[in-house]
Amino acid sequence: MCLILCFVQLLVTASSSQKPSDSVLTSLLAPMSKVIQEVQSFREKNRSSPVFNHLSAVSESVPALGWVAMAPKPGPYVKEMQDAAMFYTNRVLKDYKEKDKMHVEWVSTYVSIWTELQAYIKQHHTTGLSWSKTVSHILVCSGPVASGGAPSGGAPAPPPPGPPPPPMNLDKSSSGDSGAASHNALFASINKGADITKGLKHVSDDQKTHKNPTLKVQGGPLPSGPKPFAARPTAAASPARTLPPVLELDGKKWKVENQEGAHGLVISDTELKQVVYAFKCNNSTLQVKGKINSIILDNCKKLGLVFDDVVGIVEVINCKDVKVQVMGKVPTISINKTDGCHVYLNKDSLSCEIISAKSSEMNVLVPNKDGEYTEIPVPEQFKTVWDGSKLVTTATEIAG
C-alpha cells in the first residue's frame, strides 16, 4: 500500500505541476525507490517461504513503477519488467495449475496489472511522465497524499513482518472484466486535472524554480541508466558482500551460499530426495557426488559445477559465465536469464533436454569418439512464419 501511495502521489504531483528541477525530482522519486528496494529485500529474506515464487514475481517486476524516470520509452520498460516476472509466474502456474485455482487466478490478475499499466502509459505518458503545462506553480511532495498516509516528511511504512499469503485477494471478483474495469478506473482517476490536487500545498515564490533559478543548480543531474530503481545504494549492498559463506544441509536442501573464490567445494553425502541450491557463489567450483533430486544455481558468476546424477532438473537462473559438467545422467537442464553458460555432456547424458529462455552465449559440448569435445552453440535467434494454420518457429543459422 505504501508503494501505491508513493506512486499515485507522484502522478498527482505531475498532473498539477510543471516539471521541477533535477534535485526536486530526485527527492520526489526517492520514497518510491526506497519502498521498491524494501520489496526486493523482503523477498530475499523469505527464500524459504511457500510462496517464494509469488514473492519473486513481484520482486522482479515491481521496478516497472520506475517508468516515471524512463523517458522516452516508459512503456517498453514496463514490458521488460513484466517479462522478467514470467519465469516465476510460470512456476506458480506449474505448481498450482491442478491443485489450487486461486493461485492461477492470482497470476492472471497480477500480470494484467502491468498490461493495463502499459496501456495507460501509451495513452497518457507515451514518451515519459507528462507534467502540467498550464499550472504555474510547483508543488512540494513530502509524503503520501492520502487519508491515513504517513505524516509529511515521514518515512514510508516498513514491509509486513512476515511473508504474505498468496495475494489473490487483490481482486475478489471472479470476473476478469470487473477487475480490468477497476484498474482502468484507478488510472482514469489519476487524470482528473486540477480537482485532484486539493490537499496539496503551495509554496512561496522564493521556493519556486521558475522564479528562483538558483534552486535548479542545488543538486546534480539525475542518475542515468536503464533501471534506476533496481540499483542498490553502496551502503545497502555492502552487507550482502560480507555475508558469511554457507555450505550446510538444511532438511533436504544443501545450501551453498556466498562462496567467493572457493575452489574445491564438495558435497558427497547425498541422498536421492535431497536438492542443492547454490546462491551468489562467485569464482568457485562445486562438485556434487552421488545421485540427487535437483540442482539450482541462482545469481552465480564464474561458477563451475560438476555432478554425477540428477533425477529431476538442473536449473541455471540469473547467472553469468558458468560451466556445468555432467558425469552421469540428467533428464533436463534449464537455463534462464543467464549470460554465458557452457554445458559439458558425456555419452550417457546425450539425451538430455536443454531448455533456455532470455539467455545468451550458451554452448553445449558433446564428446567425440577420441575423447575430445565438440562445442555447439545454442540458437538465440528464431524465425516464425504462418503456414496457413499455425505458427511455425525454427532456429536461424548462426553466422560464422
Automatic annotation (TrEMBL):
Species lineage: Eukaryota, Metazoa, Chordata, Craniata, Vertebrata
Protein's UniProt name: Adenylyl cyclase-associated protein 1-like
Residue spans of biased composition, Low complexity class: 171-181, 227-237
Region (Disordered): 147-181, 203-237
Membrane disposition: Peripheral membrane protein
GO-annotated cellular components: cytoplasm; plasma membrane
Signal listed as a keyword: yes
Gene source species: Sinocyclocheilus anshuiensis
GO aspect biological process, one term: cell morphogenesis
Molecular functions (GO terms): actin binding; adenylate cyclase binding
Bias kind Pro residues: ranges: 156-168
Cellular location(s): Cell membrane
SMART domains: CARP
InterPro entries: Adenylate_cyclase-assoc_CAP (IPR001837), Adenylate_cyclase-assoc_CAP_C (IPR013912), C-CAP_CF_C-like (IPR017901), CAP/MinC_C (IPR016098), CAP_C_sf (IPR036223), CAP_N (IPR053950), CAP_N_sf (IPR036222), CARP_motif (IPR006599)
